[in-house]
Amino acid sequence: MSHSATPRVTRPRTVLAMSGETRAAILAPEALDRLARVADLDPRLLVTDFGADDPAQRTGLHEAEVLFTGWGCPPLDPAALSAMPRLRAVVHAAGSVKHHITQGVWDRGITVSTAATANAFPVAEYTVAAILFANKHILESARVYREARSRVNLLERFPGVGNYRRTVGIVGASRIGRRVIELLRPYDLRVLVHDPYLDEADARILGVERTGLDTLVAESDVVTIHAPELPGTRHLFDAPRLALMRDGATLVNTARGSLVDTEALVKEAATGRLNAVLDHTEPEVLPADSPLYDLPNVLLTPHIAGSQGGELHRLADAAVDELERYAHGLPFAHAVDPRTLHQQA
């Protein structure tokens, strides 16, 4: 890692806090080796419960300057924080920090970094693939071809197929939403965005049209959701809003399942009027008798859009990059701002 200046370089005492499954999936041997070069770390110590009666853990936490966290990290409640008097930073090798970062962390002035930007990449890639496939009518054309098992008259069956000058509506100019916008730039698409925190100047920079949600829904061929799960976004896509969507339009949801009224979507999709690509649903695992599993116009995937398999190593690399910045006395590149955390997924 090269920098123009030569600030202090330390090896901060660091402790891993995540589930064993997360550690095995994210921290490949190469990542652990790099982590050990950057930080003073005992790779044998893994904290899964801050209240565990373990002398080695108590000593490690008491001396910890940095907590390197991942999925499965317990909440940093008052008892946990009291066991870490020297804690100065939390580096999260995953997305949202809402599950373990408490107000007490901010009250103590502890800085927090997240690999959410790195985690946004595969979600955006999944979304763009879904958009392009939706406008090419991939699900329907594959079904027609499978049933016909002979030449299909494409002009007759799919006269409006294609991505040229189609309209895509993005709900939420979040990290993922902005990455989707970036990846869509090479295509001849009209991109609408709805986000209450997006102003006209930002929209111009992004090269998109800022619009109201109902207008976006009514004018888009594909609507993709990237808004956070908040009390005000629950069932954002209810029956009246789904009814605004164009006949043949596609709803893509890689955000939280609670943003879509599942019952209302089932009713719309069952008529064949709308298509859906769903990586998140409410409940997270649908009951076995849900029609969404079998509807030919619905593609249902098991929460696979986010980082999986080899993509998890990107999260570790991003988190170690942040720890390396900290060790060099530099600010985090992806610090969490407590003032805007409530706006994020």
From TrEMBL:
It holds the Pfam family 2-Hacid_dh_C. Keywords: NAD, Oxidoreductase. The keyword Oxidoreductase applies. Residues 129-305 form the D-isomer specific 2-hydroxyacid dehydrogenase NAD-binding domain. The keyword Oxidoreductase applies. CDD domains: 2-Hacid_dh_8 (cd12167). Belongs to the D-isomer specific 2-hydroxyacid dehydrogenase family. PANTHER family: D-ISOMER SPECIFIC 2-HYDROXYACID DEHYDROGENASE FAMILY PROTEIN (AFU_ORTHOLOGUE AFUA_6G10090) (PTHR42789:SF1). This is Hydroxyacid dehydrogenase. It comes from Streptomyces pakalii. The lineage of its organism: Bacteria, Bacillati, Actinomycetota, Actinomycetes, Kitasatosporales.
